[in-house]
């Protein structure tokens, strides 16, 4: 099946939003600023839901669940990335032997627990969060659950019930391995699946005013942004608006991506970033966890005080993440885990 380029462009925009959003969070922790807060509201309003919805768009839940394929793409990549974090944090020059032992213990526990954010609701004490690769664990559970629900009568009821149980239970306890995040993510996967089944994009093309409505909803969501972290099922102070806004945001980004698909150079660049989004996400997580960004932000602010700190952090991170992803592309065996298209090409050659 030929790749649909504007979907890759949408994923490219989303992974850039992930990096930009994390840059804004670090910047706001360093020096609280309205610009950083607006950037966070913009990025977090759509980026993770978009990945889940697009994943659901290309799912076939009525088929058999492919355990090995899903494990390689989601669980194996999680383990490799977490191990890289553990190596990185224990190799930081300023740390003495005792500090290295503490860092290894704390980050090891974070990797084992698999939570995307710090919480006091964990089953046992976990001082740190593993960060963005919670997405890999949650996506694994979400795909598995949707495959199960698709074989049951009243699939929509099971999806809604799963979301409700995941959302409510996470108010009282945060289970390991991002299980509850995956339970809520099932709803976004199912929306993507239904969008393809009923040709929602075709309907939107026939009724262009839907685009305008989606942009208005997204704008309202950003203006009244009350926080959103799918990692711990926190949909902020306006959860209904957050969910609806994320769906509208996904539709907006897909629409923009269709327009950018007509711009050869920019479309090709964003498409390439989108195809490498899994590798970029994992490399970004490593540098986000390992590097002392609060220290670097102080240096950047003194060096270039006239440039917005959010932009500086984003610009510095991009080459690190892109180069790391390019290196992963050339590592035998594991490159097929981080770049599923390589595994598909290999399978196609074997069949031919």
Write down the overall geometry.
globular
Mean pLDDT: 91
Distance between the termini: 15 Å
SS class = mainly alpha
Overall helicity: over 70%
Query: Which ranges are low-confidence, i.e. pLDDT below 50, for 5 or more consecutive residues?
Result: none
Describe the 3D structure.
- The chain has 352 residues and is mostly helical.
- The protein has helices at 5-30, 34-44, 47-57, 67-90, 97-113, 134-150, 155-169, 179-197, 200-206, 209-223, 239-260, 264-275, 277-290, 293-303, 309-329, 335-338, 340-351.
- Helix 1 packs across helix 11.
- It is globular and about 55 Å long.
- The model has no long low-confidence stretch (mean pLDDT 91).
Salient structural properties:
mainly alpha; 17 helices
Structure described in brief:
This protein is mainly α.
Could you outline the blueprint of secondary structure elements for this entry?
Layout: H1 5-30, H2 34-44, H3 47-57, H4 67-90, H5 97-113, H6 134-150, H7 155-169, H8 179-197, H9 200-206, H10 209-223, H11 239-260, H12 264-275, H13 277-290, H14 293-303, H15 309-329, H16 335-338, H17 340-351
Helix pairs in contact: 1-2, 1-3, 1-11, 1-12, 1-13, 1-14, 1-15, 3-8, 3-11, 4-5, 4-6, 4-13, 6-8, 7-8, 10-11, 13-15
